[in-house]
Write a structure and sequence with these properties.
homodimer; mainly beta; Sulfite Oxidase, Chain A, domain 2; Immunoglobulin-like; 2 domains; five-stranded mixed β-sheet; five-stranded antiparallel β-sheet; globular; sulfite oxidase activity (chains A, B); OxRdtase_Mopterin-bd_dom (chains A, B); heme binding (chains A, B)
């Protein structure tokens, strides 16, 4: 804890003069677009390498253990793509709306930016987040177990406004969203969701979408799995049934123990994770400490987060701090004293519908262990007496 | 507006195949820390060059006309410094609390991060924002007339918690905050404000403070002029009266018409600006358009923003969209049709205390024209029939 000042043996870092007090720093013309300090260079998104065949069809994970608050910095956002990042000239980008509509339309980016805008902070979570953990503790770090998520403020146009321009026919029940990347990523979206809260966004965290987040245009499907949030969006087709695309048949279905598959499992259920301590962020000090974590629900807002330090025997309610918004990350803290005892740290989220995050074993009883997707079970970190922290499994 | 699809003369940008659909894009390992698209390279902070003697004691202005929503991207935040950007090794940084306290203390960065954290979104506005406009319309762009402002989510520790550790003596009434930059920037802060809502922040928008925003530690003084938000914070001294530093005597006082000066004018009154259209962002199309702008108040939250298109003769209430938070920017819109007529565009903010943003002439009647600081008068943009937009003065 803080040292007493003015002692007989003063801290040379207080009494001395540092270089940054002695010399002028860089001037303003050196940083037209700013970057983090050179002392933060280790804080980056990371691929695990072995997960996919190539970097063009892979994942960069958000370093959750190095972040705080509820905004994910745009430079550290999780990314997943299927044919690499499309580098699109916005002047040549078009969005077409066709299919079961009265007036098939083609929008330029300027056309879209002349329509009424809305601003919303939403989490995006990949359905495969924590997917490696179905069969037991695998990955040593919340960046890898839970880092396929980000939370940014979007600016865009309500999809309902765009569809109203085109005029939906009465038999339209589903939409197909298609990307302009080389994969031509596409997914089917029920019309009811599309007319409820879906945005077609061109900005994130105040500026244009980043290329790896779909620049210049992406779908924002609040609370639903990230794969539906089609990036580099070029076409929306209205139809009377789902398209049965690769990404909703071969992928993004949940294989159950009896061999049947759950399909169209869109909603991301309530979930949470302790980001500090965690394997990449061990405890360094005894005494006063801050336990920190994130909670979210695709069904609404977070109402409460409980934390256990003894593997689920005793629970205390965490302090949620910062805005608590619908379908957005919430930040929670437990301020505690650590005497060096071994701990089994867990967190459990409750949302505005009353849903309580289940244990991994409760989840496995219903879903088996064959799935990759929709693992929202309670995470356990073992904190050893030296502070080192590991991913462990206690059901 | 959007073109009809499927016509006899189809858009080759829809029917053709673009390079980004034909070839793989970059893989995930190429962007451990992401950056904007190369098509957004023109969106940068800018110095005006002539304002100060050197780049190390100058200003970079936020490009408000290119942003949306209420979050300022960290890479585009306004910056002002007096001896350049201190480049501080956080392992060697210390915060001392001394003066009229029972226990003078020295905190490491780790000490501070082990104390209870809070997360808040606040605007920071330089007292000199719009300062050139006291004597008439000067600068052609809201980046330069209003861009000494940013709005980010901070994570930090309540200053009250730090002061409680040190134990304030009963005669302590003021604090002096001092930076570790070569200027040793310092300001006096009334204790009442310090104990109310001041934060000592180490993170912004989810990640560590940027160097030009005070990495690794800065003061956050909600609603008060930016010069008080001491960056690279190294010392807080408690005393019984203000220190009368250069920055609160020679600077940051408001010279009135009768030769007296207003001193300790800390609070930033309610203000607003239309960011689009504006001189750097002229109207490009007749028909459907989006007028967009920002409003804020150092006394509370924004309750209403009115917009005039005819120089203040007629007003309409704008649509505020996105979170409306205390001492944070609020985003407003007016969706309108433009027939090509000349317009005099204005916005007028009202805050939760009932305060209404004054006209520039109303302000001059009270304050004269000698000041640099605290100009929150209503801004007027003249939109010509071709869409070109200019900074003009109509009182």
């Amino acid at each position: 804890m803080p040292a007493a000042a003015g002692s007989a043996d003063p801290d040379p870092l207080i009494t001395g003069v540092q270089d940054w007090q002695r010399y002028l720093g860089d001037g303003v013309d050196k940083r037209p677009y700013g970057l983090p300090s050179k002392f933060e260079k280790h804080i980056v998104r990371r691929d695990v390498g072995w997960l996919t065949a190539s970097a063009e069809s892979s994942v960069n994970f958000t370093p959750l253990h190095e972040l705080d608050g509820i905004i994910t910095p745009s430079g550290l956002c999780f990314e997943r793509h299927h044919s690499g990042v499309a580098e699109i000239d916005p002047g040549s980008h078009r969005l077409m709306i066709n299919g079961l509509v009265d007036r098939p339309l083609v929008f330029t980016m300027d056309d879209i930016k002349r329509m009424p805008r809305v601003n919303k902070l939403y989490f995006l979570e990949c359905a495969a987040n924590s997917g490696m953990e179905w069969r037991g503790a695998q990955l040593n770090g919340c960046q890898f177990t839970h880092g396929m998520i980000h939370n940014v403020m979007y600016t865009g146009v309500s999809l309902k406004v765009l569809l109203d321009e085109a005029g939906l026919r009465p038999n339209a029940k589903w939409l197909m969203l298609e990307g302009a990347d080389a994969a031509g990523m596409n997914r089917s979206l029920p019309l009811e969701k599309a007319l409820n809260d879906v945005l077609i966004a061109f900005a994130m965290n105040g500026e244009a979408l980043r290329p790896e987040q779909g620049y210049p245009l992406r779908a924002v499907i609040p609370g639903w799995e990230g794969n539906l949030w089609v990036k580099w969006l070029r076409r929306i087709e209205a139809g009377d049934q789902p398209w049965q695309t690769r990404e909703e048949t071969s992928k993004y279905t949940d294989l159950l123990a009896d061999g049947r598959s759950r399909k169209h499992t869109f909603i991301m259920d309530a979930k949470s994770v302790v980001t500090n301590p965690s394997p990449q962020a061990p405890l360094k000090y005894k005494g006063r400490n801050v336990l920190s974590g994130l909670a979210w629900s695709g069904r609404g807002s977070i109402k409460r987060v409980d934390v256990s330090l003894d593997g689920g025997r005793n629970w205390q309610t965490a302090r949620i701090d910062g805005p608590v918004l619908d379908k957005s990350l919430a930040r929670f803290y437990v301020d505690f004293d650590w005497s060096g005892q071994e701990m089994m740290v867990q967190s459990r989220a409750m949302d505005s519908t009353g849903y309580v995050q289940p244990s991994k074993d409760e989840l496995r009883k219903v879903r088996g262990v064959n799935s990759i997707y929709h693992n929202n079970g309670i995470q356990t970190w073992l904190v050893r007496s030296g502070g080192e922290t590991e991913n462990v499994e206690i059901g």
